[in-house]
Structure formats: structure tokens, C-alpha cells
């Protein structure tokens, strides 16, 4: 089964995914039962398995962000499910409320296939990231953490980017291991206001 290539999605397809995320959130507040997307309305590319994250902000403050790095289900369904999860299941935040909707922004990020980056030290990784503002996944043993490329907007220095990602994973800021697995990735993303 082929996997959605984020490079192949056009603006129209990304706009459709943003609409799917809006519908997922709207369905929670409407009187009827939430209705998942009708798959026959979407292009073949949006029906291929895809990995994505859905990020929600209210007045510029993070309100939820959940996703996956493994493509298991059709991208359109993955966006729908991750939008609902980001709104109501991200344990870092209280569930989204109706009075937040006017100030809600939704960002859908479709992940390109992560690539392993071979580095011999944390400093070598920092040097690489100084010239390559990509998404980053660090994993060692059972612990793993991911930053989307958009995180560079709030953490523009490579050493801070890596340090905060390690803290997110549950390691201390100075932790490094010879078994650390480093992966980088890019995304194709679209952002817009919630409206209905």
C-alpha cells in the first residue's frame, strides 16, 4: 500500500484537509452525532495512508497538538481523528470549549517520511540543525519526542531546540546517548481560522 507523499499534495487538497479538521471540531458542538468524512468525496492521494499532526491555538496560545509519525489509515481519516483528539484528548490542556471557537486557529501538518540522520554527538546534530530547520524526532529506548518544523519559530537556536525536545521526551537537558536515534522530516502544512 502506498503512502501519501506530502510533496504531492496541492493547495486544494490541503484546503480539503483543513476543512476536514474544522468539520471534526464542529461535529462535537453540533446537536447531531459527529459524522466522519465521506471517503468517496476525496482524491486517491487523500485516501492513501498518511501521517499528520493537527495543532490548535487560541489567541496564539497552544491549545492542543496530537498526531502520528506512522501512516496507518487514510490521510483524510487521520486528519479527522487527530483534530478531534487535539481538541478534546490532549492531556496537557482542558478540552476545547465553545467560547474559544471564535479565536481558534487550526494547522494541519502532513509529514514526509522521516529520514535517519547519522550523527556522532549532540554537537554534530546542533551543527546540522543550524543550517537545516527541519522537524526532529529523538528516540532512545522507550522514550521518544518530536518537534514539528514550525517549532523553530519559537525556538530559533539549534541548541535550545534540541534541549527543549530532550526535556519533552523526559530526559534532562544535558542527556545524550550513543544509542540515540535521530530522524529528520519536513511537512506540508496549511493553517486557517475555525469558522462555521
From TrEMBL:
Pfam families: AMMECR1 (PF01871). InterPro entries: AMMECR1, AMMECR1_dom_sf, AMMECR1_domain, AMMECR1_N, AmmeMemoSam_A. It comes from the Bacteria. Residues 12-196 form the AMMECR1 domain. PANTHER family: AMME SYNDROME CANDIDATE GENE 1 PROTEIN, AMMECR1 HOMOLOG. This is ACR protein.
